[in-house]
Amino acid sequence: MIDTKPYIEKISAAKTVTELGNITQELFGRKNGVITLAMRELKSLPDKDKKSHAKSLNTAKAELNTAIDEKKAELTGASGDTLKNTDNIDVTLNLPQEERGHLHLIPSFIEKVEEVFGRMGFDTASGPEIENEELNFDLLNFPKDHAARDAQDVFFIESDAPEDNKLLLRAHTSPVQIRYMREHKPPFRAIFPGKVYRKDADATHSPMFHQFEGLMIGKDITLANMKAVMTTAIRELVSEDVEFRFRTAYFPFVEPGLELDMRWRGEDESSREGKWMEVVGCGMTHPNVLRNVNIDPEIWQGFAFGFGVERMLMIKHQITDLRLFFQNDLRFLRQF
Ligand code: PHE
User: Quick check: helix, strand or coil at residue 207?
Assistant: First the structure.
């Protein structure tokens, strides 16, 4: 039998949480606790005594636990009482700020893209990341033997699809142009953000990256409109004073075709003038593409562009390696 009285007295006399902890240990410690040992001894008692001993032991245990809990509440101020016994609450303590999660900088940038283009009247749409050759290439006016179809560059997917129309991970967001034009009648303007896949990996390439395609078709849309829309977007999304240039380029689905480069400080952080980085492909939609979706190129014309999201962010935030976006290093990500 355990006499709880001296322990109860000790508990109620405790002045600090540490002191109370010591008493608790003395009673319930795993090795030598008074109660722990008594519980263990129960096993060796003759059967006729076991029951009554267990009962009184449980009563003692409950009594002590209650006393400990009450004392603890009193000492820590958790009793809901006033602050009188709560000398271990430091009200001047600077608690760490609660950390809140937020979007990764890529999806949050894409939200901003949708907002900026939304203000210019552009709709937003998306398409699947698994496409076939017809949508990724043929309907965009790529000849059958175009180098971009090379298995070196594109992730083809093994499937039962016909040999001349294999499944693949889309290499650009341009197939969404086709999907959109099949479902909408011109005039229209829309952007198509999303992930694209290519077999590339270095400081300015990743096998998965993000683009947003733009498409604007009307009766009198010109290259001047394209430049105006793109310039507005760049100023709002990258910065007011980013330096950029257009130069001619070839894409089978536009004519004329252009590329836009932005000035970037380069992988070499010490370089003063930096170098040009290609960020956008663009141009006037090729008449063959319009024909492929039953839009009459004698009546309708317009432009398309495809911006590289990570590259815009690299220029905006002076980031020197594109792969940092996907390594999930919080020291990098929480800066944004
Ligand atoms: N799809 C092209 C690429 O990924 C970019 C582009 C889009 C070019 C639209 C012209 C018009 O490289």
Answer: coil
Which residue minimizes the CA distance to atom 4 of ligand 1? 172
The structural domains of the chain, with segments of one domain joined by +, span: 5-76, 105-333
pLDDT digits (tens, 9 = 90+) for 94-122: 888 887 888 999 999 999 999 999 999 99
The string of pLDDT tens digits covering residues 127-143 is 999 999 999 999 999 99
3-state secondary structure of 303: strand
Question: In terms of CATH architecture, what is 105-333?
Answer: 2-Layer Sandwich (3.30)
From 139, 174, 205, 221, mutation site for ligand 1 pocket: most ligand atoms within 8 A of C-beta: 174
Tell me the CA distances in angstroms from 212 to 33, 284, 302, 304, one per residue in order.
68, 17, 17, 10
The span from the CA of 13 to the CA of 73, in Å, is 14
Q: CA 60 to CA 37: how far, in whole Å?
A: 14
* Burial zone of 147 (CB within 10 Å; 0-12 exposed, 13-18 middle, 19+ buried): exposed
Six-digit token string for 231: 């310039």
Q: Considering the entire predicted model, what is its pTM?
A: 0.72
For the chain, the farthest-separated pair of C-alpha atoms sits apart, in whole angstroms, at 105
Distance 11 CA to ligand 1 centre (A): 77
Taking the C-alpha atoms of residue 52 and residue 74, their distance in angstroms, rounded to an integer, is 33
Q: Which residues contact 271 (CB under 8 A, 6 or more apart)?
A: 265
CB atoms within 10 A of CB 163: 6
